[in-house]
Predict the 3D structure of the following.
Amino acid sequence: MKLISIETFANEFVGFVRVTAEDGSQGWGQVSTYHSDITAQVLHRQVAPWVLGQDTTDLDDLLDIVTEREHKFPGSYLRRALAGLDTAIWDMRGKQAGKPVAELIGGSAGTIRAYASSMKRDITPADEAARMQRLRDRFGFDAFKVRAGAEVGRNRDEWPGRTEEIIPTMRKAMGDDAALLIDANSCYSPDRAIEVGRMLEDHGFSHYEEPCPYWELEQTKEVTDTLDIDVTGGEQDCDLPTWRRMIEMRAVDIVQPDILYLGGISRTLRVCRMAENADLPVTPHCANLSLVTLFTMHLLRAIPNAGKYLEFSIEGDDYYPWQDGLFVEDPFTIEDGHARVTDAPGWGIEVNPEWLARSQYQASTL
């Protein structure tokens, strides 16, 4: 099936993609969040010329052709643009087959355990624990992730002593049975990361995310090799050879690709297969309630090495005001701590026409 048009509807924060095939079939996808208007430009300038009029049957090969033709631009923006193309084609395929994407990639509709994921550091440990308790009581979450250190903080904390306080506070507030996760967002040198990791182990945390600068794989591996807690990472990485090296050297215990940072479902499935061959689980990064979380839900219902849970952002419109009104019907509901993938064809969503009307529109056509 050949594509005849690629349309984008974007603003600074989020951008949707609609592809149309020669038979009139259409699909919706999304470029990565954050500077999505720039990513949309990349899609039209550097992706569309290589894919319009081309057969999309072998999607892996088509994506590789784009990266080869644009070999002077190996970085994040090109991959974030590819994600919009890829996810729209998967939606189109699902609609053509009358199946959810999860089924097309080897899975099925159904539920996934979710963890309540906090993005905030400007919150006291007591207030963070209290809001997690409210979420537990309302939605049934039994797993929770908070933040340690400062983002890319060079060993600094958000304020002195916050990390040392939030670790025991969360365990005491949530009880012995709760799964507790923490994200350092590239904050620490290995020695400090190990020091914090020992505190996490002492309080029963099970997931220690991105303790060292993510680009320093040897530093992360030093932490992984030293600690018993699962060290995790990979959300920022969009280069497949980097993923291969990370997995082969076992820099982390759990891999965390972000479908939209990496370049779409097809490229993420390649990483999942690398991890499966190394007996590593996959717990993807999906830190907002745009389509990236829905894509991740479908992926986790399909891969054999899916991790224990889905990341589910608890931040509302006060933190992500651009999330408001994206879809006609909200595809994200949590019941008894679980999210649900429906059996609707494709991604099973309809983008809000009012949102589309306010967006920046561009089209590339044959």
Remarks:
- The radius of gyration is 20 Å.
- The chain has two domains: 3-98+353-365, 103-341.
- The mean pLDDT is 98.
- Residues 103-341 form a domain with the TIM Barrel fold (CATH 3.20.20.120).
